[in-house]
Specification:
By secondary structure, this protein is of the alpha/beta class. It is built from 15 helices and 16 strands. The protein is globular, with a radius of gyration of 21 Å. It binds N-(iminomethyl)-L-glutamic acid (NIG) and fe (iii) ion.
């Protein structure tokens, strides 16, 4: 039975009590810590932790991996609750067009963007899609990500959306990190349905959703609710069909325009509303209390704002609004070609003015909740998965987002097993 002992940690961070599933509003600034800590894990789960002054010592050295984390912080691994990690090709050429002045929407209107990615994905084999995405996820694990949500949405046909979801299932089986899948067939209207929106919607609701739910190929359903993509009424149709088949919503709303998607998503009990770069008073009201803190979690994507040069979501106002703010990479070839949660945490601080403690909570406990993993990940709590980041020797947790662009991770552990061995593990 594999066991793990971490001792002498400068601090264990994110030691939230078991009854805390997520943190909202002013509570987001509180990142509980145990200074000079030790932690024990067995069979991939946390079994005990505490301070070195009360360390019970080791009775049985068999199968015990010991890590000396002197001078280092141990924190829950990053959870990334919004990505499009399965794609056929990058889109540097569109990025260069944007550098020359074209907008994301202009490129999309000319047949680029999501439709460009769909043409390439349809032509690529399942094996090639799998190996490309596997390499991306391996890099993400080295950067501290221990759970990821991955969307379909570049297939845009029954057959190719199913192909993407099968690739996601293979990734989940092949890699140690937790993987959740989301059906995003309503990402863009495919060319063959250009004159038949209702036909595409009906294919999603009456064929894809029942089949995907029946084969358990996805846990969530998504829709790009945006001017020139899908309307609020169309998103509602999809959320209703999802609910009927046990797929909760996690939706793209308010990226470029506020068209009422947030209130509709809240009404349909979506698990998360993602993007939120453009917000009106009515949108804040729709998200305001009293609501369960686990209902409809605003999930912010600062790397997308950075890469597209669009406004950052008003994270501080959402926190003042009492919300449970989560962070994600939005890893995709068009608007955020990076799966690095460290960059996201840093941008959340420098650009959205989150405090380091708020950003770490948003990328761990709240991010886990935004993908339905709050029982399993996101905090150092007995019974949760033993999935951690051990930092290099740094003076304070704030050093992580402060040194933007530096890799301050020493060791990454997933389910009690070392996936990136640094000096502490040596
Ligand atoms: O989250 N906005 C819609 N979907 C992605 C971008 C997809 C793409 O450009 O390929 C996003 O930004
Ligand atoms: Fe996205």
């Amino acid at each position: 039975m594999p066991r793990l002992l971490i001792k002498n940690a400068k601090a264990l961070l994110g030691t939230h009590p078991p009854e805390v599933a997520c943190v909202s509003g002013t509570a987001m600034a509180m990142l509980p810590a145990i200074e000079e800590g030790w932690l024990h894990a067995e069979n991939g789960r946390i079994t005990a932790f505490g301070t070195m002054s009360a360390w019970p010592g080791v009775q049985d050295w068999n199968d015990l991996t010991v890590i000396d984390a002197s001078g280092r912080y141990v924190l829950p691994g990053w959870c990334d609750p919004h990505t499009h990690t399965v794609f056929a090709a990058t889109r540097e050429e569109e990025w260069v067009m944007r550098l020359k002045g074209a907008t994301y929407q202009e490129i999309a209107a000319a047949g680029g963007g999501i439709l460009n990615s769909a043409r390439k994905l349809r032509a690529m084999s399942e094996d090639d899609l799998f190996s490309g995405a596997k390499a991306r996820l391996e890099e993400m694990m080295r950067l501290g990500t221990v759970a990821v949500e991955i969307k379909s949405g570049y297939g845009l046909s029954l057959e190719s959306e199913l192909k993407m979801l099968r690739v996601i299932r293979r990734l989940k089986e092949a890699l140690p990190l937790q993987v959740k899948a989301t059906l995003l067939a309503a990402h863009a209207l495919p060319e063959e349905f250009a004159n038949d929106r209702a036909g595409y919607l009906s294919m999603i609701c009456n064929e894809l959703i029942p089949q995907v739910a029946g084969e358990e190929l996805a846990q969530f359903v998504d829709c790009f609710c945006e001017t020139n993509y899908f309307t609020v009424a169309e998103m509602e149709q999809i959320l209703e069909a999802g609910t009927k088949h046990g797929l909760r919503g996690k939706v793209h709303v308010n990226q470029f325009n506020s068209i009422g998607g947030i209130a509709a998503a809240v009404k349909h009990n979506a698990l998360s509303v993602d993007h939120l770069e453009v917000m009106t008073d009515a949108d804040f009201s729709a998200l305001a209390a009293p609501r369960s803190p686990l209902a409809t979690i605003p999930t912010l994507l600062p790397a997308c704002s950075h890469f597209l040069g669009i406004p950052y979501a008003p994270a501080r106002k959402l926190i003042e609004n009492g919300n449970t703010v989560a962070l994600a990479t939005d890893f995709n070839p068009g608007s955020s070609p990076s799966g690095n949660m460290n960059t996201v945490v840093s941008l959340a601080c420098t650009q959205m003015k989150l405090l380091p403690e708020e950003a770490i909570n948003a990328a761990t406990i709240n991010a886990a909740a935004a993908m339905g993993l709050e029982q399993d990940l996101g905090s150092i709590t007995v019974g949760k998965r033993a999935s951690f980041i051990i930092t290099r020797e740094i003076p304070s947790p704030a050093a992580l987002p402060y040194h933007f662009g530096s890799d301050l991770i020493d060791t990454v552990i997933i389910d009690g097993a070392i996936v990136r061995a640094g000096e502490a593990a040596g």
